[in-house]
Each structure stands twice: as C-alpha cells, then as structure tokens.
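Section 5.1 Outputs to date
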Amino acid sequence: MELNYLKNKRILVTGGAGFLGSHLIDLMKKNNLLNIFIPKKEDYDLVEEENILRLLNEFKPNVVIHLAALVGGIGANRLNPAKFFYENAKMGINMLHHSYMKGVDKAVMIGTICAYPKHTPVPFKEEYLWEGYPEETNAPYGLAKKMLLVQSQAYRNQYGFNSIYLLPVNLYGPRDNFHPEHSHVIPAMIKKFFDAKLDNKDRVTLWGDGSPTREFLYVEDAAEGILLAAEKYNKPDPINLGTGKEISIKDLAELIKKFCGFDGEIYWDTNKPNGQPRRCLHVEKAKGEIGFEAKTPFNVGLKKTIEWYAKERGINI
C-alpha cells in the first residue's frame, strides 16, 4: 500500500488496543507508519471530556482515527440502551470537537451498520441512511454513532474541518470478543458450539428463527479499508466498507457448527429477537473512491477465526 499523506504524520488511534484497532495498528506498522499513539482506557477514559483534552494536548496528533466504542450484540444492546447511547455519543462528539479545536488535520470517524434504517432496501446504499428509523434493539447505539456523521458534515461546512465518516459492516476475525454476554453473532456462536462439544451436550440454543441475513467483513480487510480512507478520502459523504455478500443466520450457524465439529442439533429460540431482517451493503463507492475491495473469502476468514479461538482455548479441532 502506497501511503503519502499519512507518511510522517502523528496518528492517534483510539481503541487501538481493541479488536479492530489491533489489526489496524499491525497494518500501519507493516506500512512503516510508526508515529502512532494508542491510548489505554485505564489512562484515558474517553467518556470523560477532560481525558480527551489531556490526550490531544499530550500527543498533539495530526490525524485522529476514532475506533473507540462501547459495542455488543443484541443482548447487550437491549440491556444497556442508555449506556450504549451516552458513552458512544459522548466519546465521539467530544473527540471530533476537540480535534478541530486543537488543529488536527484530519479525523476519521467510524460509524456502524446499525445506523441504517430497519427496512433499508438491499443492498444498503449510503444515501439510504436517512430513510427510516434503525432496528429497535440497537437504535440507541446506531443513532449515537450516526450523529458523528451529522457532526462531521457540520464541522466541514462551518469550519472547513476535514472529517470523514466510514460505515463498516459486521466484523469478524481473530482477537474478536468472545464474552458470552456482549459478543457479536459469530464469536457468540463459535463459543456456544465449542462449549457444547466440550460438555458433551447434544443441543445448542440460538436466538431468533435464523431467517435474518447478515454481511460480514474480515477484520484485516476492514483495517485496510480504514487505512485507505485515512490516506485518500477527503469528502463529506459516508462510505460503506463491506463485501456486498450476505448469508442467513441459519446458514451461518450450520457453517460454524460444521467447522467446530459439533454433531448435535440447533434449537432456535423464537422468543428471542431476530434483529434487523437483512443487512447487505452496496460497496461500489469504496471501490471507486479509495480502491477498496474485500479480499478474504468468508469460509477462509471463518476458519481462521475458529482456528484462532480453538488455539487460544487449547482445543483440538
């Protein structure tokens, strides 16, 4: 990857120690971007405005890539809607505002697929963002992140501040969060199937009826898309980052079951919510504007993720 704009820049990556952030940092270092600062949460809790000010004053970045977020699956969003709204809105709004105030050259704000309306026509085009209300179970999170697009465009319009906004689809890959209470669908399923296998259970219970579809982007591909946008993109309009391919939750479950070597049955708990009916992105803008196309076939990325998790737990597959 040829990087000219980012070369020799001081780059702040919030959330750089997290799932997506760690892969982005690996890619940046691979491309000889070494003047990077990764704030640790215990040192800089970015929900508190004074910590954002202290961080910007101490590191004096030229570029801010804001990945830090409170995230989780449907269950976590249902239990903590206020927390998901407040912390994500406060972190993002203050980070962007003070980046402008401190003279940062460019801010890269990361949105979410959850910002799209519940019944968005498929494939989701960026211009459909405002054609309805998000799916209810994660609307507070989705709207908090969506406000960063409004803020980015407002600051560009009034102040000429170069802030861009990216919309990555659901991510997966090694180093994902496998916590049973706030993981996303792929790591949650992987953990459930391995737990059932190790405990000699003959059934795994999954939420909903399996009919919704989702699109998944391998985390290393997502990191490449973000870095390309940080280097090349300087416009107010949002950009989707995805593959343009969807899979039903039922088919996903069967695939993970097979790769984990689980021989039992799947029980669908239809008393639990399905979430958004379909998710699949239109990805032509990313290809045209920044030359981004996802490279990792889904089966390949899924196997890598399962193999990583098995190795971490010492499981033979």
